[in-house]
Amino acid sequence: MYTQLPFDELKVDPTQKKRVAYFYDSDVGNYAYGAGHPMKPHRIRMAHSLIMNYGLYKKMEIYRAKPATKQEMCQFHTDEYIDFLSRVTPDNLDMFTKEQIKFNVGDDCPVFDGLFEYCGISGGGSMEGAARLNRGKCDIAINYAGGLHHAKKSEASGFCYLNDIVLGIIELLRYHARVLYIDIDVHHGDGVEEAFYTTDRVMTCSFHKYGEFFPGTGELRDIGVGKGKHHAVNVPLRDGIDDATYKSIFEPVITKIMEWYQPSAIVLQCGGDSLSGDRLGCFNLSMQGHANCINFVKSFNVPMMVVGGGGYTMRNVARTWSFEAGLLNNIKLPQELPYNDYYEYYGPDYKLDVRPSNMYNANLPEFLNKILTNIISNLENTKHAPSVQMNEVPRDAEDLGDVEEDTTEALDTKGGSQQARDEIIQPDNEYYDEDDKDKEERNINEESKPTDTDGDVKMDENSEKPVVTEEEMKEINELNSEN
Ligand SMILES: [Zn+2]
């Protein structure tokens, strides 16, 4: 079953236009987990500077999302956890001794200045990206401030506090019958898997290092329960996996999932800690090997959200995410790095490349064969199995824009001076409606929101033909509250 595929040069088709919406908030690079902590939000700013200086702003639309509100966060997380995140600061930490233990903040997940705002940025980007995909306003949404896959319903974990991915998927489920989540971070995507473990509306598929490694979950035999049985896929890998080997397991697994599960939207977590030379990781992927996954998933032409994740050797994360943003725009960025704000980080070669090392690949063909055979045979059970019919997902009528909404005043109502804060750069192709800027995108009705945090999620009554009924959404929310 397992065949080692050759690793060919990545190919892009420049004629295949994709509408890409890229979310970035310039504040994100200012947050710091603390001295010596491996997670550095600054890497997102580094990636952004490269992306801009390569000129990708000419190809995609750039947005600053409105930060996720407490109300929005509570669609997945508990009120008391979100309330705690919104109130705790390094200065009042003493008042929250009990909560620190309860919500697992401390060493790995420290309380730092602006923690809640940081969570809001990460969550806002993924929710707004999902909303734009829902409305057919883009084919691909990118949020590198997102991808925080370890966060739990009422617990921080593995440098993650708010699970922006779960929030984004919940948004997608309003319009999409089946959503596929793919995770190529070196760590198991446990928070997302857990959130959707008992439903067949979401299939999660995580490729990760397994065995004496954080978070310790993600065994081959963990396949979901109840309705969700066979809808969690785990690919446990060993140290030193290289480009050709990763491709040889990634492509057949994803191909089978696409064939049998037929998702209408995909969320791809692009954790950069699976790259060679990562400070915490133990895989041996080059930039090309990592990017091949993004290029491969994109080739299915299904609406896709791309989020960040781990990645602890900043210069390599920034390089790889920039290269991948290029691929998502059908461009292979040239090797020579353009001058950018953080040019000195990329010495001595100043090249857009992450090379593999000569480390030993502990993933032997017999081992991979066993994994692949097992996964493929499990996946056969998903063939035409989901409880939601396999027919086409209805889309909203084309949004021709509303002149009212496009006035400066209207734009400014979106959380402060949206237009003033945004650096919306006009793309160089005629693909977009000039007025099609960042409007109210999410499905939660702002006006109808209760001001307290009773967690009573209001459904958008204006959305046409949503796939998820209120009943189903309740069911999904209940699944999340079972533990
Ligand atoms: Zn990770």
Automatic annotation (TrEMBL):
Tell me which species this is from.
Answer: Hyphopichia burtonii NRRL Y-1933
Task: Tell me which PANTHER family the record gives.
Answer: HISTONE DEACETYLASE HDAC1, HISTONE DEACETYLASE HDAC1-RELATED
Q: Which InterPro entries match?
A: HDAC_I/II, HDACs, His_deacetylse_dom, His_deacetylse_dom_sf, Ureohydrolase_dom_sf
Keywords, comma-separated and alphabetical = Chromatin regulator, Hydrolase, Metal-binding, Nucleus, Repressor, Transcription, Transcription regulation
Coiled-coil intervals, chain numbering: none
Task: Name it.
Answer: Histone deacetylase
- Please tell me where substrate binds in this chain: 108, 158, 312
A cellular component term (GO) from this record?
Rpd3S complex
Biased composition annotated in UniProt, kind: Basic and acidic residues: 439-468
